[in-house]
Amino acid sequence: MKRSKNTSSLLSKELVAPALAQSFVKLDPRMMYRNPVMFTVEIGTTIMLFITAYSYSANDKSVGNFGYNLTIFTVLFLTLLFANFAEAIAEARGKAQADSLRKTREDTPAKKVSAVGEIFTNEIHIVPSSKLRKGDMFICEAGDIIPMDGEIIQGLATIDESAITGESAPVIREAGGDKSSVTGGTKVLSDKIKVRVTTEPGESFLDKMIALVEGASRQKTPNEIALTILLASFTLLFIIVCVTLKPFADYANTTITIAAFISLFVCLIPTTIGGLLSAIGIAGMDRALRANVITKSGKAVETAGDIDTLLLDKTGTITIGNRKATHFWPAKNIDSKTFVEACVLASLADETPEGKSIIELANINGASFNTRDAKFVGFTAETRSSGIDMPNGIRIRKGAFDSIRNIVVRAGNSIPSETELKVKEIASNGGTPLVVSQNQQAIGVIELQDIIKPGIQERFERLRKMGVKTVMVTGDNPLTAKYIAEKAGVDDYIAEAKPEDKMNYIKKEQAGGKLVAMMGDGTNDAPALAQADVGVAMNSGTQAAKEAGNMVDLDNDPTKLIEIVEIGKQLLITRGTITTFSIANDVAKYFAIVPALFISSIPALQALNIMHLKSPESAILSAVIFNAIIIPLLIPLSLRGVAYRPIGASALLRRNLMIYGVGGVIAPFIGIKIIDMILGLFF
Amino acid sequence: MNTEITGIVVSFLLTVLLAFPLGKYIAKVFNGDRTFTDFMNPLERFIFRLSGIDPNKKMNWKEFLKAMLTINLVWFVYAFFMLLYQDKLPLNPDGNPGQTPDLSFNTAISFLVNCNLQHYSGETGVTYLTQTLVLMFLQFVSAATGIAALIGLLNGIKEKTTNNLGNFWKIFVKTITRILIPLCIIMAVIMAFNGSPTSYKGKDTITTYQGDTVSVSRGPVAGFVAIKHLGTNGGGWFGTNSAHPLENPNYLTNMVEIIAQVLIPVAMLFAMGFYIRRKKFAYVVFGVMTIGMLCLLIPTVVTELNGNPEIAKMGIAQPTGAMEGKEVRFGPAASAYWSIVTTIISTGSVNSFHDSSMPVSGAMQLLGMMVNAFYGGCGVGFLNYYIYIIIAVFISGLMVGRTPEFMGHKVEAREVKIAALVTLLSAFLIKGGVALAAYFVAHHPDIAWAVKPSAWLNNPGYHGFSEMLYEFTSANANNGSGFEGLGDNNTFWNVSTGFVLILARFIPIIGPIAIGGILANKKYIPESAGTLKTDSLTFGVMTFAVIVIITALSFFPALTLGPLAEYFQIGR
């Protein structure tokens, strides 16, 4: 799969310039107030601006000297810009990603069909794709770019979807059924289809996603709201701390400058997480988009992290496409070479994947047989077997056990007991036995097996460690289903599944308080997709399925669900760890600033200056600078996300608590000390 | 080992040994299982019939809180007027006067909220009638209110999804009849046999060996002291509280009183484990709280045993440690242990004078009250801890990549909002109060009030700051101990601490009950491998970290200007 567009560096040049511009635009208080933490920083910065101006014009000692005030103001202003930049760069990345998808569908000529035209009915006009409205009809022929998302109402075509999926193999889309959807920007390779437009311009999933990323219509997710409340209350706490410090200082006969108050306040409030919070959220959606998944809301990504149960289709997800022949079991007295040859002869005209796999397994060139006068017998529902009648009178049949037994018994022969035994053995191992007869004599069994995708067991193990239960959905009989379920390592299975079985299973799980994710494509999947907490529709699926789900996977890759769950978890973890880091930082900042504030009137507090910072002024300045630069330093982490490790909740908590909690306490001690030493070189 | 230290260790071990079976018993009482106190059944039925209560009526969290708050309001009005007019009522052999309205307001609230901040002295400020029928009565019902609130919360945790927190009245009455009264009877008997008075006669006069006459106050002290400690109330019969020889005659009673005050808070933790069938969770909570206590206790004991460096500088040896403000019959170690126990669990009784404690001890006592959840008061200790848990659950839930959940229920914006508000409250009340007081002392020392702000503080400087800080912290923690040395019986302190008391009592009860009620109402989510286990050691550490960080962030500057500055100033 081609994923070149996904490897762009975190901060490429073409993204940084517009993001820098956006950082200034975002200073607008009408945008800023959505983020209470940074909004208070903006207020503080504004006050500092006035103080700086005042200290320049008036010679008032109580507000401190101009140069120092200006420095503090500059650092605070930078803090704001850094936070805005974080958000802007996350938006820019998301937008760039979406734009590259959107570019493919900009104003392509469309062959619009007018039911009642100027001269004829069903007249065809060439119009720009932007003129197409929902419900309009257009046709596409080989070589045309499909102008809009739509549903095929007539015809069948092979389509190259590599523009959006990166998958070069063409796919077939046809009217009716579950593969009737086409996406704007993809190319018709052969045949001709008539398509009905299903979305208004600007309302396609991609457009919605871009709007989500761009911020205007971005709504905070429930978890983001809860975290914002927590951060706002920490901000309030530090307002209390700073306001009450004034009378405390008066009591202790200490003067504290306004610059020091504002610095203390800005340092203490959780600016790190406050500045990065929205960037983290956008980056989550962005990561989904990089995985070629379009999410209809940020909430869906967040919910994905909470998923308890995953419904996965067997075919394509757990097993590779179709069954394959894995073994030849000749009956007693039958030479194995003869048996294999008979099998190959019987499969020569068999175009099914199973038939092809038999020839593959035999590793014999089918063309080496002389079948010029042979008569091929195709599979019919009646005989449930297929085979070949050779000119020399040899008749070979292969088929399900009971159909071959009929042939054999009718001719007065009997099935050898060891063949019967083998048939049962294969069935109980989850395989499908094909019995082969030659001239009404059973000569052996071909074993067909589902091939479980390599590496899928590890992925399920990983999911189990995350606490996610996997459920395999298959049309197979319960015996086969059970065997494959065990072999692949899924926790549960639904055998002989009908669409309503999925629905019922989801409802049952939800009644038990679980969150369920599933992937589907067909119209009959739509109710289940809507019912599931995270429903991922395949892009190739029907419009109904895509409307019902809350994500669309452009790659049509059923294993994508696993990635989506990890993206969701990563999103929450990134928020949690940076919050912890941000709050843990305050310990060191207290030790930097509080002694600095009181040291002149209470020299004994020098003992609290455990970092041995040079002077009160440089201590405060170092803390503020550290507070500002930690934001850009953490931008790459918030965009990339903190890696998720499936090591169990407690172990993960311990790990993150050590890195971001304990690390968050220690890092600023070191950082502030270093900044203080550097400042010492200048002052 | 030093016998003084042994005394502490034995006291603590005895507490835990007694608390365990008591916890089991308490769980049985509220589960409605058969217990040996079932003979109280007819009495309870009589009380319910008399008050027209249907004890089987289910209550959701709002009804539960309504019942609790209503009855508390009734008690407040009753107590306020009784204290105001006590001079006109019987049982006043010493002829004590009625309280002023502001003092009466403060006293009524203070006892109602289980705080017992006393701005009066028991010998002269109250009568036998108000001591027993008002103050002692409130000591019972306020403790029972706290325990009932906790049981209500646990009822919500216990069930997968429920609307029902149980019947407040039933839980409340049973708390008194099955837990408080039986325990108090036992303790009162021990106190009486060790010399605490149990008389309704007025002052007695003794002639000392030197020939002076001294009048000695007395009264039904033994029973009062029992509920004072068992109910984590702390309001003393005498002004000097448990330092008074008749209120705490010897080392044995001292041990009994220390054990009694921690007994129910610890037993409630074990009871929780049995009651909600999550014993491991209860043990982890107990472990975290115990470690918290030790972090405060050890520095206190060490500094008190080491003596005062200022005295050492004068060349005076202090073989028994820092003895200023301590009773010789208890010694500095037992006094240090008491001072920590009484501050962490919101009793607020004292057997030494905290004003005279070393600065480090003062800081530890303050921290104990600021956290207010290391064991904590009767029932309310865990309610406070619960708020820390909600915040810890929220942050750590994010860190493991799942929407946070506690006991199978999702913690979302609404719960976080309530928890955050409750957390903010202590910082707001304590620092706001101290800021106000500091403002008057600094800017209006001579304002025309009955007691001028300049006359409030016994000591200038950092120690004076600690006195103000301690008073508001004690009020906010519903603790009731005083740093003393503060002129607090005047309008400013009576009214300001009065409001702090009410808010700091009821909001931290309403908050957890509301969260508990909302959570209990949500869909139950079964645990999976991805769920954060709240009964794990890791989560215990997380909660401890949250407690430390929130307390440090809220109070570091205030502690710096008070005890820390004093500590660095007098040298180490």
Can you offer a commentary on this structure?
- The complex is a heterodimer of chains A (683) and B (572).
- By secondary structure, chain A is of the alpha+beta class.
- Chain A is built from 22 helices and 21 strands.
- In chain A, a hairpin with a 7-residue loop joins β12 (375-377) and β13.
- The longest helix of chain A is centred in the C-terminal third of the chain and has 39 residues, at 560-598.
- The two termini of chain A are 57 Å apart.
- Residues 1-7 of chain A have low confidence and may be disordered.
- With 572 residues, chain B is mainly alpha-helical.
- Chain B folds into 2 domains: 10-277, no CATH class; 386-571, no CATH class.
- Helices cover 64% and strands 2% of the residues of chain B.
- Chain B is built from 18 helices and 4 strands.
- In chain B, the strands form 2 sheets. Chain B has a two-stranded antiparallel sheet. A two-stranded antiparallel sheet of chain B has the order 3-4.
- In chain B, β1 (204-207) and β2 (213-216) form a beta hairpin.
- Chain B is globular, with a radius of gyration of 23 Å.
- Chains A and B meet through α7, α15, α20 and α22 of A and α14, α15 and α18 of B.
Please tell me what the overall shape of chain B is.
globular
Largest sheet of chain B: 2 strands, antiparallel
- Beta-strand proportion of chain A: 15-25%
Strand order of the largest sheet of chain B: 1-2
Largest β sheet strand count, sense and barrel closure of chain A? 8 strands, antiparallel
Annotation, overall tally of beta strands of chain B? 4
Radius of gyration of chain A: 34 Å
What is the overall pLDDT average of chain A?
A: 83
Shape label of chain A: elongated
What does the radius of gyration of chain B come to?
23 Å
As for the number of domains of chain B, it is 2
Give the total of beta strands of chain A.
21
The secondary structure category of chain A is alpha+beta
Tally of individual helices of chain A:
22
Distance between the termini of chain A: 57 Å
